Amino acid sequence: MSTNHPIVEQANSMLNQLIEWRRTFHENPELSFQEFGTSQFVAETLQKIDGMKVERGIGFVTSVVGTLTSGEGPTIAIRADMDALPITEENTVSYRSKNDGIMHACGHDAHTTILLGVATILGELFAKGEIKGTVKFVFQPAEESTDVSGFSGSPYMVQAGVYNGVDTAIALHMCPWLPVGEAQVSDGYSMASVDVFEAKIFGTGGHGAYPEMGTDPIWMLGPVMQALHGIVARRVSALDSAVVSIGQIHAGTASNIIPTEVVIEGTIRSYSAEVRDLLELELNKAISIVEPLGGNYTLDVQRGEPALFNNSLVNNWITKAMQDTYPELQITKRPFGMGGEDFGYVTEELPGSMFFLGCAPQDGVQRDLHTPIFDIDENCLPIGVAIFAQTAINFLNGEANSPINQKLEVQTHGA
Q1: Exposed/middle/buried for 118, CB within 10 Å: 0-12, 13-18, 19+?
Q2: How far apart, in Å, are the Cα atoms of 77 and each of 168, 171, 259, 395?
Q3: pLDDT at 83 over 50
Q4: Domain locations in the chain?
Q5: Given a cut of 60, is residue 402 above it in pLDDT?
Q6: Count of CB atoms within 10 A of residue 253's CB?
Q7: Which listed CATH number (3.30.70.360, 3.30.565.10, 3.40.50.300, 3.40.470.10) goes with 193-303?
Q8: Phi, psi (rounded to 5 degrees) for 283
Q9: What is the dihedral of CA 85, 88, 91, 95, to 10 degrees?
Q10: Which of 140, 164, 304, 396 has the greatest CB tally within 10 Å of its CB?
């Protein structure tokens, strides 16, 4: 894409630096809540920017928050996640992961890199007095996983007050199903709430030769599975987004022993709060089928991150920034799918939005998120930098489609 926009030119001039940062992160991935080296690198890089206030350990020890401010005007937060996944990388690139069994397979290395680039550009503009207001650069740990309390990094930072006084928050995600030069934007619900469950079906068990002498939880599993997989098809409106998936089934110790219990683990996902509640209710009904068959059961549902709700006004600012910086950028408008994103905790508290940025390498290989061969076309990095920077500039200068003094409101619609 050709453009002579000054922010784009600045971002393009940083390409080699962005690639270097991204490959450093990619080579040294760290799991959720263990981003010690990554956060140290981020903090040291931010400290080189004139006027940047750097805070560490807000909400969790590996978090980093940088702040640039003129002391007056509105406040925007830009968030990037830093953690990697427990995946062994299969790529043979020079920057392949050096940490066995750990890989940046979701693009968080790129997210972190892009936000450092944005901080660099906006730092120069603040130093020149060209923008007024405050920008918070939120480097968040643990988007991919939860701790023993069931929380990922985002709710810890929300609870610690990182977003207090922030008018709006924005984020992006790598998009391997779109090439460089394209982006995906969605108003309203755009990613799902993520809940996990564990159900246990209990029978008496017994000798495999004498099944009539007891109750068999494996036999009961058959109608339970039919009921579980029928929830979305027959209990949820076809107009609503919902998923019930079974990931694990465990039972038995030997071929001639009928076990006393079967353990089922899975996930339920939805966009609206009403459907989320309905799925949990129907899940309980489906498993209770075992009772007239002579069995008993327990069900434990752990609620995770809420559905991501993108504020339409914030999306207008993002889209305007895209059009300002890259007039030829192709923008697709549709939800991102039933994956989860803990940025949803932020958009529950204040108006915000996330967009997906095309990053697919042009090698003919489908490199999906969370796979051992995930990788990106690094030419997407300056594009992300320019879009983020221009969105912040438009917001702080009141140059977006709607007046800056228009009240932003959290759009819940039942969330």
Answers
A1: buried
A2: 6, 9, 53, 11
A3: yes
A4: 6-192+307-397, 193-303
A5: no
A6: 7
A7: 3.30.70.360
A8: -60, -45
A9: 70
A10: 140
* pLDDT for the residue 399: 62
Please tell me the predicted confidence (pLDDT) of residue 173.
98
Model confidence over 199-254: pLDDT tens digits? 999 999 999 999 999 999 999 999 999 999 999 999 999 999 999 999 999 999 99
Lookup: tokens for 298 = 């327990």
Q: 290 — phi, psi (to 5°)?
A: -70, -20
Catalytic residue list contains 143: yes
Run of H or E residues at 337: none
How far is Cα 350 from Cα 364, in angstroms, rounded to an integer? 40
For 275-313, the pLDDT digits (tens) are 999 999 999 999 999 999 999 999 999 999 999 999 999
Side chain identity, residue 167:
D
**Full-model pTM:** 0.94
DSSP state of 85: B
CATH number belonging to the domain at 6-192+307-397, selected among 3.40.630.10, 3.30.470.10, 2.60.40.4070, 3.40.50.1220? 3.40.630.10
For residues 5 and 385, what is the distance between their CA atoms, to the nearest angstrom? 13
Per-residue pLDDT of 311-364, as tens digits, reads 999 999 999 999 999 999 999 999 999 999 999 999 999 999 999 999 999 999
Start-end of H helices in 74-212: 108-127, 153-159
Q: Do domains 6-192+307-397 and 193-303 have the same CATH topology?
A: no
From the list 30, 35, 81, 83, the catalytic residue is 83
- Strand 64-69's sheet: what is its strand order? 53-56, 64-69, 134-140, 75-81, 168-179, 352-360, 182-185, 330-333
**Cβ atoms within 10 Å of 285's Cβ, excluding its own:** 11
CA distance 311 to 75: 16
3-state secondary structure of 332: strand
- 89, 143, 144, 378: which one is catalytic? 143
- pLDDT category at 411 given cuts 50, 70, 90 is low
